[in-house]
Amino acid sequence: MSSPDLETVDGLLAAVENGNRRALARIISHIENGTELARPLLAGLYARGGRAHIIGVTGAPGTGKSTLVNAMTQIYRQRGITVGVIAVDPTSPFSGGALLGDRVRMRDLAGDPGVFIRSMATRGSLGGLAQATADVALVLDAAGFQRIIIETVGVGQSEVEIASTAHTTVVVEAPGLGDEVQAIKAGILEIADVFAVNKADREGADRTVMALKMMLSLGVPEKFQVMHHGRMLPVTMPASDKDPEAWTPPIFKTIATQSKGVTELVDGIEAHRLYLEQSGARLLRERLRAATELRMLLRDALLNRVLDNAATESIDALVEAVANRELDPYTAVNRLIAETGCIDS
Ligand SMILES: Nc1nc2c(ncn2[C@@H]2O[C@H](COP(=O)(O)OP(=O)(O)OP(=O)(O)O)[C@@H](O)[C@H]2O)c(=O)[nH]1
Ligand SMILES: [Mg+2]
């Protein structure tokens, strides 16, 4: 077989479909660096995607997410299932201690062609970090990885954004980090499909489980609603999604460092995967994902078009006028849109 041409879009696409890891790494670099091949590559990959089950693993710093992802990956591999791992670190633009630690732990999995691990930080990309993560997940999906695990630290909006990329979101809690359940914020409960109470070898794990059960019985915001993942989206729901009782997030106690409870956790994730498929909820999530992604890209595209077409001086002048309160920002925006003629107003 002749060696594949990794300089062209077609060559890269063909190679990645055949499981060529160099092609995989190159495509991801194109996407991360936003090169001119990025868009045509993503366009070509899109039709090849849609098969992987995407699992988001989120939680407060230090709860054991990376250790857990490592243990989960090993269990999937024992079952013959291939896994792509994306570690998202929105806080550090450089490979900091946490990422370095991840690499050391992940070394157990190195050399296995059924595993691909990639760390991502805020870097130049077509969209923001959430979009870049979705794009890299698409590459791994098109490359044939059956499960894609995305680890992200639960800070600010990022967990919600990443969650809109995942089919199953695992929220990781750990006892003894202050209050009972640190991440009990409306946002994180809303996105959880499965809970892992990790560090169950530590005191207080049962209390954390109890606290979670309490929260769940008090009523998690209804799942699979139009407001799912905090976004109001214009979608019609399949009838089977209207039952909010259909899925109650299970809670698993785990000791990631000893791989205890992780088989049960993986089984819980797989049960959710089956639930999504059988109830039709997966289709709904795909629709939500598509709607979110379209809006995000549309917003960026229109913004760039207006900014590209507006004269720098007129933007500066408007900024100045708004800062001096001579003009309100709404009127300023309308003037910019009118001036550039990008959108009929
Ligand atoms: N006792 C105990 N320690 C654990 C367990 N799981 C992970 N740890 C330890 O907790 C520390 C943090 O683990 P990580 O897996 O890096 O946690 P993380 O959530 O990925 O951390 P960030 O990515 O920095 O947010 C490490 O020292 C782990 O060895 C566990 O089940 N029990
Ligand atoms: Mg980590």
Can you describe this structure in just a few lines?
The chain is of the alpha/beta class. Helix content is 48%, strand content 12%.
Give the neighbour order of strands across the main sheet.
3-2-4-1-5-6-7
Number of helices: 13
Q: Name the CATH superfamily classification of the largest domain.
A: P-loop containing nucleotide triphosphate hydrolases
Helix and strand composition category: alpha/beta
Bound small molecules, by name, code or SMILES, are: guanosine-5'-triphosphate, magnesium ion
Number of E strands: 7
Distance between the termini: 57 Å
Helix content: 40-55%
CATH-derived topology of the largest domain: Rossmann fold
Beta-strand fraction estimate: 5-15%
Largest sheet: 7 strands, parallel
Shape: globular
CATH architecture group name of the largest domain: 3-Layer(aba) Sandwich
The CATH class of the largest domain, by name, is: Alpha Beta
What is the succession of H and E elements? HHHEHEHEHEHEHEHEHHHH
Average pLDDT score: 80
Describe the structure.
There is one protein chain. The protein has 345 residues and is of the alpha/beta class. The protein folds into 2 domains: 48 residues, Up-down Bundle (Single alpha-helices involved in coiled-coils or other helix-helix interfaces); 231 residues, Rossmann fold, CATH 3.40.50. 48% of the residues lie in helices and 12% in strands. It contains 13 helices and 7 strands. Strands 3-2-4-1-5-6-7 form a 7-stranded parallel beta sheet, sandwiched between helices. Strand 5, helix 8 and strand 6 form a beta-alpha-beta unit. Helix 4 crosses helix 10. The protein is globular, with a radius of gyration of 22 Å. The termini are far apart. About 9% of the residues have low confidence. The site of magnesium ion has 5 residues, from helix 4 and helix 5.
